[in-house]
Design a protein that fits this description.
1225 residues; alpha+beta; 36 helices; flat; disordered N terminus
């Protein structure tokens, strides 16, 4: 809600109006069917429907509480129609300005103008046009805001369906005054005859528009020279003549359809004014009300019950002057419903049947903005002047005052009233109102005012009002000027507006108590108010309330003042203690016995932890823990109870830490007298438990600063903890040492939940010592010794300290930054609580995530776990960092011998890598390393269980997709798919080996460290693996065969349909649960496949293999296979072609051809040259072969080819050519 929402001013309406016989009850939307008009002065309201109407006049009334208020009471009701069948179609209330010099801007009287469906417009007046009257609108004098602005004439415009009549305002004003004077004289003489003076008007026939439903008369405008030349060129063409001075034109804008909006321009002097007569002598109930003293409306005497005069003869209707449309906004489907002209005559709002509100720029004739979702909307305008301030006294005060323009939109369908800043401004206000209201916007002021008579006048007119028929309330809309500002001055203007409202409020004597509450709460929550000012104002209000009579004082307000004074005093005292120069000296008994040994024991780990703690990042100064706590934040977190105690309200973690910093940080640093601080807090009534929570919060939150001077800070923490423990209500007097103390349990709970391992460990060491001293003193105060009680409480601390030391070592490892280029990721934060909730595998799970972040290979991890790392010193910084990282991991493994046993850790690393691979299957290395980690597991039971879980959770579904969609997209590229299938083969082989070894080895017994035996949570990966059922070996072997087949097909790029190679039993067995027994293939070879294989000559395969090996350049391997070839002749022919390809590459296609090779080509026989040129060396997989190998190949050719072979002579020529090349080389 806006600050100015309270600016609604209610004017209650009490009237019982029956405008029609079928009008419903008060809750029905009867007002929407009525014609409503409100005077701009808000002193007359006209409500009409069909033939009947009611006039409501402003009256002052005293309500039941004695307060005077303005009401609108019924002053006249009756029938307005005089012609048969005519109904009221439009009304308008025009206040007429007084001609007396003593007038200050109030209207002399108000004339009601009524338009009828018969065409009559009665003030009453005679017929101007025969069509029904659609809309009456008025324009009155406005003081020009800027020099050079055209002064607009007053005018009354009447819209008919195809014509528009404009009546000059000055002529109308004079005529109405004359009629009023004649009516007064006639009433005094008892005569009803009134001679109407002539009335000047213009009548325009609006053409070239299909339907007109509303209009606006913008006024006289003068084009600039450029627009004049542009219009002349458009209308008259290239050779059009342009007049010397632009003509003055009257602009009219209409809305309807065909086009949606039309713009008409009437040049002044183009139409002669028509003369008519104003006839107010027609006696009716309205005229009786106008000139009757009994009515009490205007105050003239006339008999109320006189009969109506006979109806006049219908007068002659003057023809209209045709006026063509200049241009429009065409939209064939859109039909305009209403138009509302802005006070500055530059903008207009248009509503249509599409539920849109369009903003028009009348000077340019374009639509500049549109709102949607406002069906049946009603519009109004507000022009707000800038408020007077110091600006009026400045040298620039002669400048005209700025005005802000706002558009008011009432959406009855949604029951909302919105205010928008112009032209492209935001929505500055929205109000939820009824759905049956009427927005009343006059758009004019008093008639008869001019530049002379308006000097010094204050025009008391309302611009926009909202009438609610349900509650009978008339509200005005008031908007501060500053809401239109978007620069830095808007805040100043807003403050000035609030100061003005506050001054008015303070001058009124009867101020409600709730205002005091709001003012005090707002002041106490203001961040910029000094503490001394807060204290003085609160104390002054408290003293004022105490001086009042007991019956008049508001107890709640007095309680608020006293409680806030107490909190402010506490804030001031704490602030003074922190700024005091005196610091308490440490007493001898404050020394911590034995704490130095424990600190020296954990010091190396603390140093490494501080080294790896994340470096400070960019932060704002106000977010720094060293920033002072404002008094407002202090007050917002504390409240006084009815028992005179102070309770701390825990809101956000940040606010809680800020309050703890304010109370205890200086004490922890040794800069404040901590006993005085604790005494002050105890006297204020804050419970020791809340103080303990605040102390531990700041201790844990500022871990990094504490580790810089751990000995000194630990000593101060011990003193603070002892001081708080000695407070009343901290440790119960009746505490039985055989049970757990709630006070020390609170400390343990906080340390257990903290992620700041170092600070939590130091706090636990201090609390352990303090608790031990407290228990010892209690035991000494009694006669008997209670050893069981001592051990029960201290055993909890022993376990807690042990766990915190483990967490510190583990957290130090997790904080080790990953090497450059590693995967990285967020650092895992651990605490005792998270590790216990993580179950028996929580520690191994944290370390496995760290292994993944560090990108440690399985072999390297195995070396670390076996303590076979290289311990030799190295000057290389990276090598030293790696060794330090591995040394830290070995330290963690030593503290967790069971939770981080090799099989335990390898199982979790295997699972972590397969989870990461499942997130990104393209990273095939993750799955490969997952399988490698699995190979490192020594227990076949764990291996088998992990394999089974990996298969069912991650592998089976993807392998099934790869099998069924071998030639389609399965979410992985070729390289990733090949790697995946290879890992599948390895995984299934590991599973078969583990299944074979399970019977030979007993299942391992999993255990956990004694300090962590209370872990509750999910089972570890190893535990889950041991719970898995055994697999069916033949089924695993069956899947391994499929994976091997797919892997070979992807490796050698062979297109194959895998299922076509298996029979029906084999197909059905695929991707079943590996623990179930399935019907497997018999293993016998398919007879068809056997017959096909028998048809294949193995000698053909051997010859093909020899040629492939020679093509790859593997001549020695080829010679070995050549010994098994039976058909030497065919092989010789194949090798002869391969030799020719090699020689062709050397002589013809090599980039470094020698001169000897060129001479050899010239000496070769033509048949050999032609044969070599026909060879294609591109068929060779490795064409660049050394010449000795080729010479050896030709020698083998001569050996295996018989002399009677057709190509034997060609082989001899080849041998000669190769020998020449070898010799030359």
């Amino acid at each position: 809600t806006s600050d100015w929402e309270s600016a609604w001013e209610g004017l209650k309406i009490s009237f019982a109006l029956q405008v029609a016989d079928d009008a419903g009850g008060q809750g029905e939307p009867w007002l929407q069917d009525c014609v409503v008009s409100l005077s701009p002065c808000a002193d007359l309201l006209v409500v009409a429907r069909e033939q009947k109407a009611a006039f409501l006049s402003a009256k002052w009334r005293t309500d039941d509480s004695g307060r005077e208020e303005m009401t609108l009471g019924v002053s006249w009701t009756g029938t307005l129609s005089t012609e048969e069948g005519e109904c009221v179609s439009s009304t308008i209330c025009i206040p007429l300005a007084s001609q007396k010099r003593s007038s200050t801007g109030r209207p002399d009287w108000t004339c009601v103008v009524v338009g009828f469906t018969s065409g009559y417009v009665r003030f009453y007046t005679e017929l101007l046009h025969e069509d029904p009257v659609l809309r009456l609108k008025c324009r009155t004098y406005e003081i020009p805001r800027h020099p050079g602005v055209t002064e607009q004439h007053e005018e009354l415009s009447i819209l008919y369906s195809a014509a528009m009549v404009t009546i000059d305002g000055f002529s109308l004003f004079q005529s109405l005054r004359a009629c009023r004077n004649q009516a007064a004289r006639a009433a005094a003489a008892g005569n009803d005859v009134i001679q109407p003076p002539p009335l000047a008007y213009k009548k325009w026939g609006l053409q070239e528009m299909d339907t007109i439903v509303d209009h606006s008369s913008v006024g006289i405008m003068t084009l600039c020279v450029f627009d004049q030349m542009k219009n002349a060129s458009i209308l008259g063409g290239f050779n059009a003549s342009v007049k010397g001075s632009p003509p003055a034109m009257s602009q009219y804008v209409t809305v309807g359809s065909g086009p949606y909006t039309g713009f008409y321009y009437a040049i002044e002097g183009s139409s002669q004014p028509l003369l008519s007569h104003v006839a107010m002598a027609v006696a009716s109930k309205l005229t009786s009300a106008l000139f009757s003293a009994a009515s009490g409306w205007l105050g003239w005497n006339k008999n109320k019950n006189e009969e109506e005069a006979p109806q006049k003869q219908k007068p002659k209707v003057e023809p209209a002057t045709p006026l063509s449309i200049r241009f429009g906004l065409p939209d064939s489907r859109r039909h305009g419903e209403s138009i509302c002209l802005s006070p500055c005559n530059m903008l207009a709002g248009v509503t249509d049947d599409f539920g849109r509100v369009t903003l028009l720029d009348l000077a340019r004739g374009i639509a500049i903005r549109m709102w949607k979702g406002y069906r049946d909307a009603q519009l109004g305008w507000l022009q707000v002047p800038e408020e007077r301030s110091e600006r009026d006294l400045s040298p620039s005060a002669s400048l005209p005052r700025r005005h802000a323009l706002f558009l008011v939109i009432y959406a009855p369908r949604r029951g909302i009233l919105e205010v928008w800043a112009m032209q492209q401004g935001p929505r500055v206000g929205a109000f939820t109102v009824g759905k049956h209201c009427r927005l009343l916007y006059a758009g004019y002021r008093l008639m008869g005012v001019n530049s002379v008579t308006s000097q010094g006048w204050q025009l008391h007119t309302q611009q926009v009002c909202l009438l609610d028929p349900i509650t009978g309330v008339l509200r005005t809309v008031n908007i501060p000027f500053h809401l239109a500002l978007s620069d830095k001055k808007s805040e100043r203007a807003k403050d000035m507006h609030l100061v003005k409202k506050l001054t008015t409020l303070l001058r009124s004597r009867d101020i409600d108590v709730s205002i005091f509450f709001q003012a005090l709460e707002s002041l106490l929550s203001n961040k910029n108010t000094p503490v001394s000012c807060l204290v003085n104002i609160t104390r002054a209000l408290d003293d004022t309330l105490k001086r009042q009579e007991p019956g008049e004082v508001d107890a709640e307000l007095l309680q608020l003042c006293s409680s806030q004074l107490k909190l402010l005093q506490l804030y001031t005292d704490i602030q003074q203690l922190h700024s005091a120069a005196d610091v308490e000296e440490t007493a001898e008994n404050d020394s911590l016995e034995g704490i130095e040994e424990e600190l020296s024991r954990v010091a190396p780990t603390l140093q490494r932890y501080a080294q790896f703690t994340p470096r400070p990042s960019v932060s704002f100064a106000q977010d720094s823990p060293d920033s002072p706590l404002p008094a407002q934040a202090f007050l917002s977190q504390l409240e006084c109870t009815e028992d005179e105690e102070v309770k701390v309200i825990r809101r956000s973690e940040t606010e809680w830490n800020q309050l703890g910093n304010f109370l205890f940080w200086s004490c922890l640093c040794g800069k404040s007298p901590l006993h005085k601080v604790c005494y002050t807090l105890q006297q204020a009534g804050i419970s020791p438990q809340q103080l303990l929570s605040l102390l531990l919060s700041v201790w844990l939150h500022r871990e990094k600063e504490l580790l810089q001077k751990p000995e000194e800070n630990v000593r101060n923490l011990h003193r603070l903890l002892v001081a708080l423990s000695d407070m009343k209500g901290a440790v119960e007097e009746s505490w039985d040492t055989q049970s757990i103390s709630p006070w020390w349990q609170q400390v343990r709970t906080t340390c257990v939940q903290s992620h700041n391992a170092a600070a939590a460990l130091l706090a636990a060491l201090v609390a352990h010592r303090a608790a031990k001293a407290s228990i010892t003193s209690r035991a000494d105060s009694k006669f008997q010794s209670e050893w069981e009680a001592v051990s029960l409480e201290l055993e909890q601390w022993v376990v807690c300290v042990r766990q915190l030391e483990d967490v510190l070592v583990l957290q130090t490892l997790l904080l080790v930054p990953p090497p450059p280029g590693a995967t990285g990721g967020a650092t895992v934060q651990c605490s005792i609580k998270t590790l216990l909730e993580g179950g028996t595998g929580g520690i191994a799970d944290s370390v496995s995530k760290w292994v993944f972040r560090q990108d440690i290979s399985p072999e390297r991890l195995k070396e670390i776990l076996q303590k076979r790392g290289n311990k030799e010193a190295d000057d290389n910084v990276e090598q030293r960092d790696e060794e330090e990282r591995h040394e830290q991991e070995k330290t963690v493994c030593q503290r967790f011998p069971h939770s981080l046993s090799p099989d335990f850790l390898f199982a979790h690393c295997c699972w972590e890598y397969v989870v990461q691979w499942n997130k990104d299957p393209e990273e095939g290395r993750y799955l490969c390393w997952s399988v490698e980690h699995l190979k490192m597991v020594s227990s076949p039971h764990i291996q088998q269980g992990v394999c089974t879980m990996m298969w069912s959770t991650f592998i089976a579904k993807r392998l099934s997709a790869a099998t069924f969609l071998m030639e389609k997209d399965v979410g992985m590229g070729d390289k990733a798919m090949t790697s995946f299938l290879g890992c599948c083969v390895q995984l299934l082989n590991i599973l078969m080996e583990a299944d074979s070894a399970v019977e030979e080895v007993s299942a391992p017994e999993l255990s956990i460290e004694e300090a962590w035996s209370g872990a509750e949570g999910p089972a570890s990966i190893a535990e889950l693996a041991l719970e898995q059922r055994g697999v069916h070996y033949p089924l695993v072997q069956h899947h391994c065969l499929l994976a091997s087949l797919l892997h070979a097909a992807m490796t050698f790029s062979v297109k194959v349909k895998p299922f076509s190679l298996f029979d029906s039993k084999g197909k059905n067995a695929f991707f079943r649960d590996l623990t179930t027994i399935q019907l497997m293939p018999s293993g016998d070879m398919d007879p068809g496949l056997v017959s096909v294989r028998q048809e294949v000559n193995p000698d053909i395969l051997r010859r093909h293999l020899v040629c492939e090996l020679y093509s790859q350049g593997l001549d020695l391997r080829a010679e070995e296979v050549m010994l098994e070839v039976e058909d030497k002749d065919v092989l010789g022919s194949q090798l002869l072609v391969l030799t020719g390809q090699r020689l062709s590459y050397s002589l013809l296609h090599s980039q470094n051809q020698t001169q000897a090779a060129m001479e050899l080509l010239a000496r070769l026989p033509p048949t050999l040259c032609t044969w070599l040129k026909a060879m294609d060396p591109r068929e060779l997989r490795c064409p660049l072969i050394p010449l000795p190998q080729t010479s050896r190949l030709v020698g083998r050719l001569i050996e295996i080819l018989p002399e009677n072979h057709a190509q034997y002579s060609l082989a001899l020529h080849l041998l000669e050519a190769v020998e020449v090349l070898t010799t030359e080389d």
